[in-house]
Design brief:
The complex is a heterodimer. Chain A is of the alpha+beta class. Chain A has three domains: 62 residues; 231 residues, ATP-grasp fold, B domain (D-amino Acid Aminotransferase, Chain A, domain 1); 64 residues, ATP-grasp fold, A domain (Dna Ligase, domain 1), CATH 3.30.1490.20. Chain A is built from 14 helices and 16 strands. In chain A, strand 3, helix 2 and strand 4 form a beta-alpha-beta unit. Chain A starts with a strand and ends with a helix. Chain B is mostly helical. Chain B has a domain of 55 residues. Helices cover 54% and strands 2% of the residues of chain B. Chain B is built from 23 helices and four strands. In chain B, the strands form two sheets. A two-stranded antiparallel ribbon of chain B has the order 1-2. In chain B, strands 3-4 form a two-stranded antiparallel ribbon. In chain B, helix 9 crosses helix 19. Chain B starts with a helix and ends with a helix. About 1% of the residues of chain B have low confidence. Classes of the chains: A alpha+beta, B mainly alpha. Chains A and B meet through strand 13, helix 9 and helix 10 of A and helix 13 and helix 19 of B. Chain B: This is Rab-GAP TBC domain-containing protein.
């Protein structure tokens, strides 16, 4: 059996160790490779039509979709989700149902967001309607909490736009920002704010097939959350990004402020009850599926590609989850020992799914192995499988879900001899 | 029987007190006024009399009072108080002092993040650790027992206490045998059954049946969504306004006074829970709980109820050493914390969100059970009994393992002791730990701790038999966080 020829342009031990474990042969990117774990810039170059990079062969897989930014850039994600909602509404889909106040019953899962400076006037109208609300400004294309600030006065946004205009240049157009309503009632645990980091693996957008990783975690702020407006400059209170929190003197290097999803679940069941907890985790699954479907319409579902996304979700104190952003290259740097183990497993499970049995990948047979056993998925659960969903038209659950709008997110009935599916044990 | 009379009397007294308060027409804002109003009433002497006269001590309460153990506990108690006093001199701080105005304001302001008021903790170290305590227990010897050290191979503990045999343990924990379904313990559990089980729990709770029926139910585990209610029922804690009043009274006490032991609690939380990847989020809750706890004189009841008949040691007001009237129990609750004490509260934060509720559950759990984990007494439920049970079970269940360990001169109790003293808190995954604590309450006994410790040894027997150095054996048991408690117990009790 031929060895898989792999390469990566990232210097991450969790990757190289996983390659070594499989006895894969590490090669350079200009050589003939079968598996490439690359940075987004590299992938962009490979798929750039003006580039002279040779077309990928049937035996090559790579870890990003050509235009993943439709999902992972803050402004484009919002744009695509807004469009998705409009389309469902136009079709008269039940999912686009609205409540008495005119907000979507099932699709209202991103905070109100505007592009800056493009939607400045829309934002200004909204701001005047509710002048006491705090808003958060984020550069659309940057990560790890860089360039983020909070505002609660119109003057601050005016100042920002003035400062921007002082350095106008054609070569460097103004960086796009998004401004979102700040979730000012986050769920606090032990008085501290946190957000969820969930890993989602997509192996295809058309048809959509995605997996959710069980070992997600909550990231906690080191400082007690105080919803006062004078505190908006202390970003340690507000931003949960580990790369940011690490700078705090209260940062603990043993656990890095990370709390496992299992513990979150245990805590919520104990303090809020099982019903609400189940509903929360169900809604989170829906959010992920909706966001992926929204992006699926515009993403080039290249069969050479798979992608692992880092979903950032904030839960408010009514136990409603909000999608904050999706990251294309979630950090593979390990901050703690447990983190290292978790990320090693993550890569391990991804490789098992995208390169089944460690054989040389062949994209022509990519979708033939849909009946893969739950063991082969490791800590992943199938979150949504469009192919499978359309096959199971007779299933009663499916008909019920179909009545709700045609999406069956929690599906993993593949070859399960016992009634309880792997999916439901993790999420229900 | 006795407790039943007490209960009725208490009820009568509470009713009377309530009537009195209503008739007095005054508004009662704090505990002191409440006491004063009751003391001023004409029924006060009557109740005082009744309470005193019915204080009949049942004859078997002193069953476990053994003179040399009582002396042992007294000496130990004295030693840790002395060590606390030495620390007090070293760091040059008083045991207790009233805070000044600005300090009080600061405490009040930081009530939800008390970590901010802790001073320099570098000078403080835990008064004692599990190891120190084990060393003390090991040297306790029955003066009537002659031990030939050369022939002794029965482990570390040299106190002849009768504990349950393996057969008796199996019978006692018969609900944990492998063919009885345990709830909420594993993934393959059937969802319909689980729902049915939750319904049953709700029925039991609704009907307010006696504690027994709740315990009966909890023997097979508590669903995490109902754990709070079931625990409250088993600990006989009914949430009421009185709790809020008492909580605020203790809180005021924290605001008013700075105690030296506070630093020990701060230090302990920082050394343990803050570094624990499951418990760190509860840091600020823990400060609240522990500081209130240290000031709660009700906790002294542990000593009265304790089988050893030992009293907490008293400290003296400055320069009045030896004058009985000037002595007070210090800290006010009579408990000097050991290294890891905060781990006894921390897991409860997964079950209770409301600090008041959390406090009273912890206090009751502690008084009923955890107190026994660091108190020398001959009761089978206390730490010595658990040690003896651990050693004797291990001998009975796997003599091969036992003699292998004796041959290479490794004492398994040295490894298991810290687990038991902390009731396994911090060593297991939290859902596993809570399932274990469910059983402590359900069976109303700590013996399950010793049983689990033995089961863990048996589980890793294969590895142990291959090793012959102490460090290698220690390494085998250094991480038990992957243990699935209930299946392991089932496997062990079914063997």
């Amino acid at each position: 059996m031929a060895r898989v020829r792999c390469c990566t342009d990232l210097d991450k031990t969790v990757l190289t160790q996983n390659f070594d474990k499989r006895f894969w042969m590490t090669v350079n990117s200009d050589e003939d490779w079968n598996f490439y774990w690359a940075s987004v810039t590299t992938v962009r170059a490979i798929f750039n039509p003006s580039n002279d990079h040779p077309r990928l062969t049937d035996n090559q897989v790579i870890n990003h979709f050509p235009n993943h930014y439709e999902l992972t850039r803050k402004d484009l994600m919002v744009k695509n989700i807004k469009r998705y909602r409009r389309e469902l509404e136009k079709d008269g889909n039940l999912l686009a149902e609205k409540d008495d106040y005119g907000s979507y019953k099932y699709l209202d899962f991103i905070p109100v967001t505007y592009m800056m400076p493009a939607d400045y006037n829309l934002f200004a109208d909204d701001f005047r309607r509710d002048p006491n609300h705090t808003w958060i400004m984020k550069p659309a294309g940057r990560a790890q909490g860089k360039g983020i600030f909070l505002i609660n006065k119109m003057s601050q946004i005016k100042k920002w736009s003035r400062d921007g205009k002082s350095v106008p240049s054609a070569a460097q157009p103004r960086e796009t920002y998004v401004i979102s309503k700040y979730i000012d009632n986050p769920l606090l645990i032990g008085g501290k704010k946190f957000d969820l980091r969930l890993y989602v693996l997509v192996t295809s957008f058309k048809p959509l097939k995605c997996y959710l990783y069980r070992l997600g975690f909550g990231r906690f702020c080191t400082v007690k959350y105080i919803p006062s407006t004078n505190d908006i400059d202390n970003m340690f209170v507000h931003l949960t990004n580990v790369s940011y929190q690490k700078q705090s003197e209260d940062y603990n290097s043993i656990h890095g402020g990370k709390w496992s999803i299992d513990n979150l679940r245990l805590y919520l069941e104990g303090t809020r009850g099982k019903k609400l907890t189940d509903r929360l985790f169900d809604e989170i699954s829906w959010i992920i599926v909706h966001s992926l479907r929204a992006a699926a319409a515009v993403i080039t579902s290249d069969r050479h590609c798979f992608e692992c996304y880092g979903y950032d979700i904030i839960i408010d104190d009514n136990l409603k989850p909000w999608l904050i952003e999706v990251n294309a290259s979630p950090s593979l740097t390990s901050t703690t020992a447990n983190d290292r183990i978790m990320k090693f497993k993550l890569i391990n499970d991804i490789l098992n799914i995208v390169v089944p049995n460690g054989d040389i990948p062949d994209i022509r047979t990519k979708f033939s192995n849909i009946s893969s056993s739950p063991e082969a998925l490791g800590n992943f659960d199938v979150l949504y499988d469009e192919d499978q969903a359309s096959c199971e038209l007779n299933d009663k659950d499916f008909r019920e879900q179909k009545a709700r709008g045609g999406i069956v997110p929690l599906i993993s009935k593949t070859g399960m001899p016992f009634g309880k599916t792997k999916q439901s044990s993790a999420w229900r | 029987m006795n407790s039943n009379i007490d209960e009725k009397l208490k009820q009568k007294f509470l009713n009377q007190a309530q009537k009195l308060l209503i008739s007095s027409g005054k508004s009662i804002e704090d505990l002191q006024t409440l006491f004063r109003t009751i003391q001023q009433s004409d029924q006060y002497p009557y109740f005082q009399h009744i309470f005193k006269s019915t204080e009949v001590i049942p004859c078997d309460e002193h069953k476990y009072e053994i003179e040399y153990l009582k002396r042992g506990q007294a000496a130990w108690e004295k030693r840790i108080v002395k060590s606390l006093n030495t620390m007090c001199t070293e760091v040059n701080l008083p045991l207790a002092r009233r805070r000044n105005e600005s300090e009080m304001r600061s405490v009040r302001r930081h009530w939800n993040e008390l970590g901010h008021i802790s001073g320099d903790l570098n000078r403080f170290r835990p008064v004692y650790s599990a190891k120190d305590f084990l060393d003390v227990i090991c040297v306790l010897v029955n003066p009537n027992l002659k031990i030939d050290e050369a022939l002794w191979n029965s482990g570390l503990i040299k106190i002849p206490i009768v504990t349950k045999s393996f057969v008796e343990i199996k019978a006692f924990y018969s609900d944990l045998c492998p063919n009885i379904i345990q709830y909420c313990s594993d993934e393959t559990f059937n969802e319909a059954k689980e729902e049915e089980n939750i319904k049953l729990a709700l029925q039991i709770l609704e009907k307010k049946l006696n504690i027994k029926s709740v315990r009966e139910y909890a023997r097979r585990g508590c669903p995490s969504s109902l754990r709070g209610k079931l625990w409250s029922a088993m600990l006989n804690i009914e949430h009421c306004n009185w709790h809020v009043t008492y909580f605020n009274y203790l809180k005021q006490n924290v605001i008013d006074f700075d105690l030296l032991v506070d630093n020990l609690y701060f230090k302990d939380v920082k050394l343990t829970a803050v570094n624990d990847d499951q418990l760190f989020v509860f840091e600020d809750y823990l400060y609240q709980m522990l500081l209130l706890f240290s000031r709660d004189t009700y906790v002294q009841a542990c000593f009265t109820a304790s089988a050893s008949g030992c009293q907490p040691t008293r400290s003296f007001i400055k320069k009045k050493s030896g004058v009985e009237e000037c002595s007070v129990v210090y800290p006010p609750n009579g408990i000097i914390p050991f290294y890891g004490f905060s781990m006894l509260v921390a897991p409860m934060c997964f079950v209770f969100e409301d600090p008041v509720h959390l406090y009273f559950i912890f206090r009751q759990f502690y008084i009923k059970h955890f107190f026994n984990l660091h108190h020398i007494s001959a009761a089978p439920n206390a730490i010595i009994g658990l040690c003896v049970l651990f050693e004797s079970l291990l001998r009975q269940v796997s003599s091969e393992l036992w003699f292998h360990l004796q041959n290479i001169q490794v004492q398994p109790l040295r490894i298991a002791f810290k687990w038991m003293m902390r009731a396994f808190s911090g060593y297991l995954a939290c859902n596993q730990l809570l399932a274990l604590w469910d059983r402590i309450l359900a069976y109303d006994s700590l013996e399950i701790l010793a049983v689990l410790a033995v089961a863990i040894f048996v589980l890793r027997k294969g590895n142990v038999l291959k090793e012959s150095s102490e460090t290698a054996i220690e390494a085998i048991f250094s991480d038990i966080s992957s243990i699935k408690v209930i299946p392991l117990l089932q496997f062990f009790l079914g063997s």
